[in-house]
Structure formats: C-alpha cells, structure tokens
Amino acid sequence: MKNKLIFLLLIDLYMGLGSAFPPSIRGHYAIKNVQTGLLLRVQDARKADGTPIVAYSPVNWKCVTWDFLHVEGDTYQLRNLFTSKTLQPESGKSCEGANLEQQPLVTSQANQEYEFISAGKDTYRIKLKGSDLYITPVDAKGSVNSRIILAKKSNSQAQLWTIYEQDPQI
Asked: What's the rounded Cα separation, in Å, for the pair 40 and 30?
C-alpha cells in the first residue's frame, strides 16, 4: 500500500511540473490592447501584401481574428482569418519603430514569429522572436486605424494585450 501511495504522489508531482508550462494557445482569437481596448487588424480588410496592421474597434469579423499557429513553447505565427496572411515588420527589418504590415505566411520565418510572454492573468506582452521588440500601438490613446509598431519594452500598459476566442461569420 505504501509503495502505491508513493507512486501516486510521484505521478501527481510529475503532472504538476508539466502544468507549470502554459498550454498552447489553439484556435481563433482577437488580440486586444489593454490600454486602448482596440484590436489588431489588417487595415480596411485589404488582402494586398504590405497592407498596414492597425488598431481597430472590437468587432466579430474575420479581419480582426487570428489563427494561432504554434511553433514551440510560447512562440506562434499568426494567420489572419480573412486574408490568410500574417504580420511582420515593414520591409522585413526588425528595428525599433518598424511598422507592422501584412505579408504571406512563411513557415519558420523568424520575423513572422511572436512570443506571447505572460504579464499576468490572461495578459501578454507580444515580442518579435529573436529581438527585444514588442508589438505596440503608435497611439496609446487609441485612435482607430493608427499604426502598430515594434518598440523596446516599456512599463506602459500599451504593450499589454489580451486574447479572446471568437468565431466570426463575416
């Protein structure tokens, strides 16, 4: 009986360690800025490469909904449900102040991979993998269609994001 109890405790301990790692995000989500309340969107729902990524009012539309494609750990590629494309730094250059734009999704392309770093319960900082740059709205006050850029980490809530599942029809 004692051996069975020890075995069960070891399994419990093992399972507990496994749960220390956040589960993968799977499904379709809107990505909402904590400070502005606005979502990441492809501007004017255009499908053209190079279309800016902007802040937009919360709606249940495909153009503000992203499919999370798990790469590893807390790293994902994001595919827009409407355009089937992703976001990356303008001209592919990962530098502070770079605007984000829409481009075709390329598997394992570093400048299209984002780390969702926990910043509290259901809140994330979204960092471009392999850089020290975070997804940030240009207008921290929250004007619709303002650009989204990459910026160095700050203590501003403008760099905090939440996600919520949605399954839009349009």
From this structure: 7
Residues in the chain: 170
- Interatomic CA distance for residues 161 and 68, integer angstroms: 15
CB neighbours of 41 closer than 8 A, spacing ≥ 6? 53, 54, 55, 56, 63, 64
Neighbours of 54 (CB within 10 A): 23
Q: What are the residues facing 162 on neighbouring strands?
A: 32
The residue assigned the tokens 């802040």 is 55
pLDDT of amino acid 18: 37
Q: What is the mean pLDDT of the chain?
A: 89
Which CATH number among 2.80.10.50, 3.20.20.70, 2.40.240.10, 2.160.10.10 corresponds to the domain 24-165? Answer: 2.80.10.50
